[in-house]
Each structure stands twice: as structure tokens, then as C-alpha cells.
Amino acid sequence: MTGGQSVPNVNPSDTSDVIDQYRSGGRPEIEAAIEAADAAFHHWARSGPQIRHDVLKFVSDELLERREEIGTLLSREEGKILSDGIAETVRAAQIFGFFAGEALRLTGDIIPSVRDGVSVEITREPIGPVGIIAPWNFPIAIPAWKIAPALCYGNTVVFKPAELVPGCAWALAEILSRSGLPKGVFNLVMGKGSVVGQAMLDAPELKGISFTGSQATGQRVAEASVRRQRKFQLEMGGKNPLVVLDDADLERATDVALDGAFYATGQRCTASSRLIVTEGIHNRFVERLTEKVRSLKVGPALAPTTQMGPVVDETQLETDLTYIEIGRSEGANLRAGGERVRAETEGYFLSPALFTDTEPGMRINREEIFGPVASVLRARDYDHALDLANDTEFGLSAGICTSSLKHATDFRRAAQAGMVMVNLPTAGVDYHVPFGGTKASSYGQREQGVYAREFFTTVKTGYIHPG
Description:
Blueprint lengths: L4 E7 L2 E11 L2 H19 L3 H17 L1 H12 L3 H22 L5 E4 L6 E8 L3 E4 L7 H12 L4 E4 L5 H12 L8 E3 L4 H10 L5 E5 L2 H13 L3 E5 L4 E5 L5 H13 L9 E7 H17 L18 H16 L3 E4 L16 E4 L16 E7 L2 H9 L3 E2 L1 E5 L3 H10 L4 E4 L15 E2 L2 E2 L9 H4 E8 L3
Parallel strand pairs: 5-6, 5-8, 6-7, 8-9, 10-11, 10-16, 11-14, 13-14, 16-17
Antiparallel strand pairs: 1-2, 3-4, 4-20, 9-19, 12-13, 15-18
Helix pairs in contact: 1-7, 2-4, 3-4, 3-6, 4-5, 9-10
């Protein structure tokens, strides 16, 4: 890329550490990338399953081989602790490996027509060049679960990563450049959403947009895509409940809440930000969880003793602190954390914040904070807890801790969420199963697993008569 401005990539664990410099692209660069993807589509759409398999397998193998190197890069630029950075790189490798297999399992149907002598062939075809807009919080896994199926099913790709994580995007693009992909099939352009992202929305050549990010931006993606009659897929966050019933195992429930709310610095769209606890266990749960929250070791991502790394940047840190002040002003009890932390390096460190004595209408219980901030809501019984869990515009993930099969079964059915966890954190899903939510969290077909083909392909019905 030759245009644009040079931007430093700064380590949120150590702001004196500039990882690299990257070039921010402009309108000419993104238009060239879209043109290249459009020109390459016809050839790639007609490529055979073996080349697609080989490309995706190559990427999977190299990511796995270089998991410590790329995982370290991920932790340096995003702030996840090192074990999480490596685990995310492995997950990306697994996703590419899964879709390498799917490339060899492309199927269709041949069925008889109701008319004599006529057969019907139903096949799937790629939708065309697609735009992929990914967030910063999973800088290699989320791009993987969008890019891998796009290529698997014969689409060409224009990829815009988040500005905060250019290193992981570049590492993935560099591997893809050596994978055997024909020129123009995969294109990376870094830059501002207002420039690069907008140009993607304006481009008639892009037949699909897969987006993960904020509600406000997702709405703009939807509006622009409807005008162009383009497929679009949106993942836009959550305000996920974890219900804890009186019969729950206390240690397991507090561990599940701690993981779901605070691991990965709470910067997960599936994080448990609302902990809904019934009367009989409420006080014991709060006391035990408070102990665990206060004991979490906050520090640099690469330090071996760190359990929670920094917030991703100054802007996100200020947002988190603002919400903590909002919670206090609304009358919630800040039971633990919520303060900037000094570490051996300068970074965006925040102690995990736990609010108790909260009410459903408080902003900290309505709005996605996207940081290490969780609140406890007291519920009278299971039915009240379920009502509180569903009392949100979001519907991505929901969880329950209980030893009751009756309540677990009912919650799986009645929770208004795309993913439901029983005695497990709301954050953390397998790479081979569908990911997505309901209500304001998601729109369009599911991501991941075999369900990804619903977005990245279109169905064609052909009729055949021997003549």
C-alpha cells in the first residue's frame, strides 16, 4: 500500500512499546482492492475443491506452527494475556482447518421433478466479492471465521480490520499471500471506517458484507446494503445475563461468573455483564465472588502471573471509567475494583469492577460497556430471574447455574438468546458450531460451522430434460 498516513501500533500493556507502524489506506487503495476482488471472482468461483482445501489447510498449518509467535503479537497489540493470545491463534487455525475439510464436502441435491422425464439439480454458488469488517477484540479468530468460509465457498474477499490491531491482520494476510491463492482473491486494506469502511458500503461490486462491531455502525451497514440489495450479516454485541439459582454449586457459579465477566478484560460481546442471583444464595454468592474479583492479578499481558490484561486503549478506558461513575451516581454499590491500576509499565490497566444492589433500569444494566464491569441483580425466584434475563434489547448469550434439570431445560427454551449455557460461562463457544444471537445483537445468517454456508452461498435450482 502506498497511500495514506503512517500510524503507530502501540502496546496497551506498555505504551512505550511501539510494535510497528502501519499505513492507513484511503479511497484509492480500497477501490483498487474492490476492483481486484471483482476481477478475480469468476476464476475463483469456478476453482475446484482441492485448491480451496489446500489453501485453507496451508493457512491452518502455519497458524498452528506459529501459534506462540502470533499469539505473542496478538497479546502485545490487543492486551489479552499470553495464554489467551496463543489460544486464539490456535482457534483461528482450527477454523481454517475446519473449512479446509468443508471445501471437500460441498454438496447438492438431485431430485425428480413432478413432471415426467424432468430432473432437478439444486446447487450452491458463491455470492460474489464480499467485504469483511472485523473488530479489535478477537483480532485473528473473528477474521478467520469470516475469511475461511468466504474462501471455502468460492467468494473473493476485501478485508478491513480494526485500526487497533493491524499486526494480526497483516500476519494473516502474509500467510494467505503464500497459500496458493490467485491474485486478487484476498485483499487487505487498513484504515479508518469513515473512509475504508464507507467505500466498501458504497461499492456495488461487493455482493455481501459481514460485519462485527457496534450497533450504530451495524445500522449503517444494513441501510447501505438494503439500498444495494446486498446480503449482509451483523454481529453487534450483547448485555448477557448469567442466572444463579439457589441450588447452584457456589464455587462453580462464582468461577463461571468470574470467567464470563472479567476474563479477556471483559472485552467480549458474550461477556456476562448482568449477574442475576436468587435470594437464597445471593449474599453468599456476592461475598465469594467479591473475594475472587479482588484477588485477580491485573498487569501486563505478557507477564506470567497476570490474570487480566489492560483495556485496549485510552478511549475504551475512559468509557469504562465513565460507566463506573454512572453506576455510582445511580446508587449502585461498587463492591470491588473500578480504579486505574499502576503496573511496572505504563498501560491502560483497570481493576475489575463489581457492582451490587443494582436495579434493572440502571444504565449499567441496559447498555453494553465492553469492559471489566459487571453488576449483580437480586431475583426473588426462577421466574423473576428469567424475566430479568430477558429484560434487554440484546439477545446474544445467556447462562444459568443450577443443579435443577427442570430449570436448566426451561431456561434453554425460554431464554431470549441465540446461545444458552448451563453451568458454563456465557463467553466461550466452539469453533465448529453456529455463533449468533437474537433481537438487537445479530442480524442475518449465523457465523461459524456448516451454518456459515447460508450467508456465503446462494442456492440455484436447475431443471434438466434430455430433449
